[in-house]
């Protein structure tokens, strides 16, 4: 009966959200159930199999963090040593950061680094990405792919292998996991599912190709199955719940991944952040995991170390996030209290945005402009209108995408504690600082 309920709930959520193909793996009460739905690529008729690899985007970061904690267990890396101790190029690129930035900062998104990598050539191609830092290390949470690219470079220097070689040889092979990478020329060990851009209002499904810079691989290059994600989570479960540490990472270091970093406030993404793992409030405490979005895919992992329950979803469509929300709501209603972040409850009081919210905010090479027109608040990203913001008490807001009408994201404006003026915006977990005051449109 449990199997039939899970399959029906899973397939209904996929159909309701126009997802071409998806995998669901659930471990509960010592048993694991796996389900597949739909096609590997829309219109081909090729079923999405159990072993098909789906680009999991930022869930790659959890694998990279686990690999680094393995190196910590082996005594090769210290979490609180300056990264420059291992990467002397960092001293040349940013001497002012060299003695502050630690591996713990990188893995918890508290390094103050920009969100996106600036592609560059040279001996240290990340140098250009370190020129503009929104915050000082340790000052607060700001989601950063640059931080994980730097973490991957640290892996390479310490192991003498490429990140891809290290993650395969040192971590995945002992785990019994076969992964693929969306960048690089290695032979693909299993089919990689195609991502899709789905517009439900137009009933349009368009396959999309993966576009990731090689230097960003440690932040988002892996393609794995839902079953592979369950195997990753089992490293954090107790033996009586089917935990499998594989002798790779010490129990204390795995616990360190789940220990929340006080400075990390990932509003709009999660309820807290450790090292490569986010925390999500559940019915009886914190669940852990990560979400990942690649080009046309949306993937999600949650696990409860106390009960031994794991839920993993991979979906080959941008609408997979909506599918996940529906799936979580239905499973919660059935009594499985999966941890999930709720930034906005729906009970917030809508307010008119204060005039000092208007302006341009910068994170690295990305510029977010907030334009006020009476009660309308528009977000412009790099010169292109992107979303409509609905502002509530406390300067928090919901985000509605202009292109597809998708809602569900949340962010907030932040005030300077000294002046009281809005000087930052946090959206998608990324903090951007004010560059100049924009003119309010009458």
What does this structure look like?
This is Class A beta-lactamase-related serine hydrolase. InterPro entries: AmpC-like (IPR050491), Beta-lactam-related (IPR001466), Beta-lactam/transpept-like (IPR012338). It comes from Saccharothrix syringae (Nocardiopsis syringae). The protein is of the alpha+beta class. The chain folds into 2 domains: 1-342, Beta-lactamase, CATH 3.40.710; 355-436, Lipocalin (Beta Barrel). Helix content is 24%, strand content 27%. The strands form 4 sheets. An 8-stranded antiparallel β-barrel has the order 13-14-15-16-17-18-19-20. Strands 2-1-12-11-10-9-8 form a 7-stranded antiparallel β-sheet, with helices on both faces. Strands 3-7-4 form a 3-stranded antiparallel β-sheet. Helix 1 packs antiparallel against helix 11. The protein starts with a helix and ends in a 6-residue tail after the last strand.
CATH topology of the largest domain: Beta-lactamase
Strand order of the largest sheet: 13-14-15-16-17-18-19-20
Strand tally is 20
CATH arch. level architecture of the largest domain: 3-Layer(aba) Sandwich
Gyration radius over CA: 21 Å
Strand content is 25-35%
- The DSSP helix count reads 11
Tell me the major beta sheet. 8 strands, antiparallel, barrel
Overall domain count? 2
Provide the CATH superfamily of the largest domain. Answer: DD-peptidase/beta-lactamase superfamily
Average pLDDT confidence is 93
Terminal residue distance: 60 Å
Residue stretches low in confidence (pLDDT < 50, at least 5 long) are 437-442
Name the helicity range: 10-25%
Supply the helix-strand structural class: alpha+beta
CATH hierarchy class name of the largest domain: Alpha Beta
């Amino acid at each position: 009966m449990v199997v039939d309920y899970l399959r029906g709930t899973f397939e209904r959520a996929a159909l309701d959200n126009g997802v071409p193909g998806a995998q669901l793996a659930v471990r509960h009460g010592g048993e694991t159930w796996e389900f597949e739905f739909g096609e590997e690529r829309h219109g081909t008729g090729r079923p999405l199999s159990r072993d098909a690899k789906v680009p999991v985007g930022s869930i790659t970061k959890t694998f990279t963090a686990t690999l680094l904690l393995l190196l910590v267990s082996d005594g090769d890396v210290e979490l609180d040593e300056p990264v420059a101790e291992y990467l002397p190029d960092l001293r040349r690129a940013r001497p002012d950061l060299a003695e502050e930035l630690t591996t713990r900062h990188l893995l918890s998104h508290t390094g103050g680094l920009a969100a996106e990598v600036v592609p560059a050539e040279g001996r240290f191609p990340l140098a250009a990405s370190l020129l503009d830092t929104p915050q000082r290390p340790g000052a607060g949470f700001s989601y950063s792919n640059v931080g994980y690219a730097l973490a991957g470079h640290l892996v390479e220097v310490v192991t003498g292998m490429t990140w891809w070689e290290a993650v395969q040889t040192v971590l995945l092979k002992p785990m019994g996991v076969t992964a693929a990478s969306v960048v690089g020329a290695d032979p693909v060990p299993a089919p990689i599912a195609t991502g899709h851009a789905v517009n439900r209002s137009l009933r349009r499904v368009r396959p999309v190709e993966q576009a990731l810079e090689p230097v960003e691989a440690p932040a988002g290059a892996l393609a794995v199955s839902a079953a592979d994600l369950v195997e990753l989570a089992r490293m954090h479960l107790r033996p009586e719940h089917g935990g499998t540490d594989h002798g790779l990472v010490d129990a204390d270091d795995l616990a360190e991944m789940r220990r929340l970093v006080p400075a990390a406030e990932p509003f709009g993404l999660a309820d807290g952040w450790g090292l490569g793992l986010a925390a999500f409030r559940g019915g009886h405490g914190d669940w852990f995991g990560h979400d990942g979005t690649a080009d046309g895919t949306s993937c999600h992992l949650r696990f409860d170390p106390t009960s031994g329950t794991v839920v993993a979803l991979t979906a080959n469509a941008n609408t997979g996030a909506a599918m996940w929300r529906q799936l979580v709501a239905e499973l919660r209603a059935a009594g499985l209290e999966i941890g999930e972040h709720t930034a906005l409850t729906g009970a917030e009081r809508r307010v008119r945005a204060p005039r000092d919210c208007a302006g341009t905010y910068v994170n690295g090479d990305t510029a977010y402009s907030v334009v006020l027109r009476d009660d309308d608040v528009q977000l412009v990203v790099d010169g292109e209108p992107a979303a409509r913001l609905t502002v509530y008490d406390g300067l928090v807001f919901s985000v509605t995408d202009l292109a597809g009408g998708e809602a569900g994201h949340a962010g907030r404006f932040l005030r300077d504690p000294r002046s009281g003026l809005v000087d930052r915006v946090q959206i998608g977990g990324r903090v951007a600082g004010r560059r100049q005051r924009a003119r309010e449109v009458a």
